[in-house]
Design brief:
Elements (H helix, E strand, L loop, with lengths): L4 E5 L1 E4 L14 E4 L2 H9 L3 E5 L5 H4 L5 E4 L23 H17 L3 E3 L2 H9 L4 E2 L2 H5 L15 E4 L5 H6 L8 E4 L6 E2 L1
Helix pairs in contact: 3-4
């Protein structure tokens, strides 16, 4: 049996700080993802395939068994008809374009999509939705600003009893149906 090929979207990483002596290569860029994404795909029995923006999204999707849209910077508010607020400063228009094309191609080809963090926002906006650009302005709470390590679980979310998520989480759901999570987002789906 062939293991499923799971495409994982990448982000641009500046190479200027890399190397044994952090001098790097000025002006050079890398495409990469957090190792956790690849490790999770492998642990689930898939083969992670990092997707650089140099590939044609409509071609690569036809060769994949699944698409993982990874986290990262904010979707450019222009994509959902808004001007950026001061806190929405990190945009990558080339990544937005590439991932919007990937979403469209995956939907057209029936390729399953797992969207994480930014990925959820990409799917939402690609399908005509909008975003709350800065949660602290809406509810006064900032998920993104903390001194804790990003792996620390900071609050709970309710998980529906008969859901696929509940089955997947198993013992990570407490007796009241809550799971501790580490959400570090300053934006949300509107």
């Amino acid at each position: 049996m062939n293991e499923p090929l799971i495409g994982i979207t990448t982000r641009v990483i500046e190479a200027s700080g890399l190397g044994a002596v952090p001098k790097g290569i000025d002006g050079a860029h890398l495409w990469g993802v957090f190792a956790d994404y690849c490790e999770a795909v492998s642990a689930a029995g898939g083969v992670p395939v990092m997707l650089p923006r140099s590939v044609d999204p409509t071609v690569i999707v036809t060769r994949l068994d699944g698409l993982l849209l990874s986290g990262g910077e904010d979707v450019d508010p222009i994509r959902y008809g808004m001007e950026p607020v001061p806190q929405s400063t990190h945009h990558d228009q080339a990544r937005d374009e590439f991932e919007f094309q990937l979403v469209a191609a995956a939907i057209e080809c029936g390729v399953p999509i797992l969207a994480i963090c930014r990925g959820c926002q990409v799917v939402n906006v690609a399908r005509g939705g909008t975003l709350i650009q800065h949660l602290a302005e809406v509810d006064g709470f900032s998920h993104a600003e903390t001194d804790e390590h990003r792996s620390m679980r900071r609050h709970s979310v309710a998980v529906a009893t008969e859901s696929m998520l509940r089955a997947a989480l198993g013992t990570d759901v407490d007796s009241e149906g809550n799971a501790a999570v580490n959400s570090y987002h300053h934006q949300a789906i509107a």
